[in-house]
Amino acid sequence: MNPKILKIGIIGAGGIVRQRHLPNLKKIEGVEVIAVSNRRRQTAEKVAQDFNIPQVVEDWRQVVEMPDLDIIWIGTTPYMHEPITLAALEAGKHVFCQARMAMNYSQARNMYQKSRQTDRVTMLCPPPHGMKGDRFVRKLISEGFLGKLYHVRLTSLSAQFADPHQPVHWRQEMEISGYNVLALGIYVEVLNRWVGYAKSVQANNQVFIPTRNHPETGKPYTVRIPDSVTILTELENDAQGVYHLSGVARFAPSDTIELYGSEGTLVYHIQGDTIMGARTGDKELKAMPIPPELEKTWTVEQDFIEAIRERKPVSPNFYEGLRYMEFVEAVARANETGQKILLPLES
Questions:
Q1: Could you tell me the CA-to-CA distances from 309 to 90, 223, 300 in Å, in that order?
Q2: Which fold has domain 6-127+299-317?
Q3: Domain 134-296+326-342: which CATH class?
Q4: For residues 131 and 325, what is the distance between their CA atoms, to the nearest angstrom?
Q5: What is the C-alpha to C-alpha distance for residues 18 and 16, in angstroms, rounded to an integer?
Q6: Which of 262, 266, 298 is nearest to 194 (CA)?
Q7: pLDDT value at residue 180
Q8: Which among 292, 24, 286 is positioned nearest to 132, based on CA atoms?
Q9: From CA 250, how far away is CA 247, in angstroms rounded?
Q10: Are 178 and 306 in contact (CB under 8 A)?
Q11: Residue pair 116/86 in contact by the 8 Å Cβ criterion
Q12: Mean pLDDT for each consecutive 10-residue tract of the chain (347 residues)?
């Protein structure tokens, strides 16, 4: 029996929507993308032409209100995620939302609470960071490879914003991105799965290039989202975490997640998905190939559709997103106040 046709409306057709989501949705039987809305009609028309989408809609609210749609696929920047999600769930639609769930913890909480009031499927776009070895790392940890976890070190240094003459990027605009900074939320989502949640956060953030020209106005823009964050965190399992992320570090090595325990060490090199490990008695770290049966590949679009059709659980779900947004806001509060912030945050 052919599956019921699921009809999708795209709101926000950015790079990942065009490069990953739309091509993969086109491959799934019984799925039709029938409408697209983007910030500029011209770009929406181009996407519609490239992917044979029959309707271009100027106002995203009109997409949400379309009675024949089953799914709202959100590909906008973070400041639009909450209002679109709330409206879509109110209209009885399933919701797939881009990562960086919301601008802040309050918005994320609103999205999560609304999702709990409906039977609609809600899912966030997972990060590719560490995806390939995710199952293997979690298996090693669950089997006691590390012993008792002592230290978690995240290093994510790049030069994406190192050029002081580079115009401000939307990820650096507080009005668009909120408290999201660099890849912090992405990595916290990964670490929450691997090592559990944090119970406290201290932070020192820095904007090294405080003024950049805005690409649309050409006028100077004051940057408030940090170029660099340094975080000290205590986990619920009493391990200590030290996280350093920067967008102004030239010639830095690739991103790594290091896990140190009483019995062993794991080092995950994000670029290349290579894992090094050693246990008590070993002389040095050695390569630990990811078993083929544990490799995880990009099946995001298929996973979401199957969740709707077969009522399978999704990951990351809105609760997982809520928890990483809680950490992201705690980092901002810790930096602003100079104090240790305890988790969970008060409403």
A1: 20, 44, 15
A2: Rossmann fold (3.40.50)
A3: alpha beta
A4: 20
A5: 5
A6: 266
A7: 98
A8: 292
A9: 9
A10: no
A11: no
A12: 87 94 96 96 94 96 97 98 98 96 98 98 97 98 98 98 97 98 98 98 98 96 98 98 98 98 98 98 98 97 97 97 98 98 89
Break the chain into its structural domains and give their ranges.
6-127+299-317, 134-296+326-342
Tokens of 248: 């102004």
Question: Which residue is listed with tokens 């659980």?
Answer: 313
Q: What are phi and psi of 31, to 5 degrees?
A: -120, 130
pLDDT of residue 347: 58
**109-116 LR contacts (CB < 8 Å, sep 24+):** 109/322, 109/347, 110/82, 110/86, 111/81, 111/82, 111/85, 111/86, 111/318, 111/321, 111/322, 112/318, 112/319, 112/321, 112/322, 114/85, 114/86, 114/89, 114/90, 115/85, 115/89, 115/318
- pLDDT of 1: 56
Residues across the chain: 347
Amino acid letter, residue 317: N
- What does the alpha-carbon distance between residue 286 and residue 282 come to, in Å, rounded to a whole number? 9
